[in-house]
Amino acid sequence: MVGLQYDCLANPLGAVRLSFEKAVASGDGQAALQGKDWGTGQIFADFISENLSQIPIINQECSQRLRPNTLVRFRGMVQDALGSEFYIGAFKDGSVWRTNKYLDASQCHTQFDCSDYDIASSPDIRIWERRLIYCVPVPCYNSWSECSLEGETNSCIDSTSHSKEKRFREDSETVDSMVCDGDECPSAAKKMREDGHLSPTHAAGFSARSLDSGTSMLMNPRQSLLPCLVKTYDILESEVKLNDIVEFVGILSYEAESSENADEMIDEVASVHLPPGTVPRLHCISHRRLEVHDLIHSSVVMEPKSSLVRQIREDLLRHLTSILGNDGLTAHYLLLHLLSKVQARLDDVAVGKFSLNLTCFSKETMSAFGSQLSHAINSLVPLSHCMPLTVEYLNSASLAPKKDYETNRLCTGILQLANGSHLTIDETKLEAGTLNSVGVENVRLLKNLVEVQKVEYDFQFYKVEMQTDVQMLILSEGKSNIIPADVVVPFQPGLVNPMLHVISDELNAWRWYLATLRSSSHSIAPEVQKVVEDDLVSARQADRNLGTEDFSRCLTMGRLIAISFGEDSLSLEHWQMVKELERLRKERIK
Question: Keywords on this record (predicted)?
């Protein structure tokens, strides 16, 4: 019924209004007046499931074409939680109940003085609550992954194309009749109604000034995505947390002048300091949390069959070996490192992490192999960053996020990363020098990240440890004294191979392999577990220096080797591979 009268893409507010009025008129009226979903969720869920690729994405290029009050899509990382605001969710217009849900400004000011806090007790007013979260383009987003996102849709679809212009004007007039009373029309609505459509100056174009202190320092300078202020409804805090990567679908709002509407919220988060017209506002209707595998091009669909996985593993290992100057041992450890993921946490132990320190990287070796290695990693994982570690960098970098109470904002730090990010730390440029207090703190932060996969957020009066899952690769001349990795492998290249061109299908297969298998489940059969336990006991008797960290590393390697073959359980063959890799590695260290 709604689909016949309203266009969910060009005029989603029409569907919201009609479904609300129907709910109020039915037996579910009291639930709707309390702000509970009155059927809107299902209306849009049905539409989105069939038309997701047609919903335009908010980015720099398309923002000039997007119209306010249309359905849009945004994908980003939750950088800051800005708290809640209370607003007039429903009000009585004569004998008819209206709703302000998914609108920035209350449209009841012709009947009530919205600056009067006593209106909450009025029988003709319903006060509802919504959460505000600030999202930024995902830090360390590699350009190929962004292209994968935009490739899912015609990235500059005009949601109100000429073929829909007539319907948009008709629907807009219907909505405007609800929110306007004669000349008492909000400025934003007035600007929307110039000859029945928006002029170019009133499209939702947002400038590069959007990139404020909350936006990640690690955003690709060529990245076309924008930050976004998302207003969420009917979502628990546990559903969307700090640093989650989330795809939101919702209504784009146009807030040209905040001063006119400032008194229309009962309890507005007034100190957000996000100037209207610079940061898009999105009223969330639907959302889904994304994992690393969701950032891979959707057209890459493969079944994890053992034979297919083994072939992909062999090809990828051959590629990594070539990149690393025919050093097959280092290539094996790098493959396991790229498949690693925090699987569980026991107190301060992050089970599953596998940080890797490649040593024997002099400046000359770095010059010969560093760029190829960096390029290979950037082309394989969707989120990656290289940190050049120097004394000057440590003494000046803002690694930890810090709360600014003057703006009431969380200022981002370099280590505010989404789960699944890859961080390469280049220590080859590190020379003798003196660390100041900032440098000492930054070293502690990096050490804490690699050891327990946590980052301290500085709230001035106290600090909060936030869990994370970042793959860490350290390149250094000798064993790193700053960042104690889980495993140290001396790099022993044979020769510098020319950079080989990799066809896109093969590259996509490798990306799918790494992103999919790292989340695979894993188990150990009782008979294999008994062999593993006996081997670890024997190793401990032979070398009293072995501790729980060494045993934990071997078990992690066993799991990673098993999943690298597409297997969900550790076999005796996999365990023998673990012991052989460790034997060869220790021989190099000697």
Answer: Nucleus
How far apart are the C-alpha atoms of 277 and 102, rounded to whole Å?
Answer: 18
> What pTM was estimated for this model as a whole?
0.85
Q: Of 400, 144, 70, which Cα lies nearest the Cα of 297?
A: 144
From residue 346, alpha-carbon distances to 29, 217, 353, 404, 492 in Å are: 48, 32, 13, 33, 35
Provide the residue-wise pLDDT of the chain in tens; the chain has 590 residues.
444 456 899 999 999 999 998 888 887 678 888 888 888 989 999 999 999 989 999 887 776 788 899 999 999 999 999 999 999 999 988 888 999 999 987 666 544 554 554 566 688 899 999 999 999 999 999 988 766 555 455 445 544 444 344 444 444 444 444 333 333 333 333 433 333 333 333 445 555 444 455 555 565 544 567 899 999 998 888 889 999 999 999 999 866 544 444 444 544 454 455 665 678 899 999 999 999 988 887 555 566 667 889 999 999 999 999 999 999 999 999 999 999 999 999 888 999 999 999 999 988 889 889 999 999 999 999 999 999 999 999 999 999 999 998 888 999 999 999 999 999 999 998 988 999 999 999 999 999 999 999 999 999 889 999 999 999 999 999 999 899 999 999 999 988 888 778 888 899 999 999 999 998 888 888 999 999 999 999 988 888 888 888 899 999 999 999 999 999 899 999 999 999 999 999 999 98
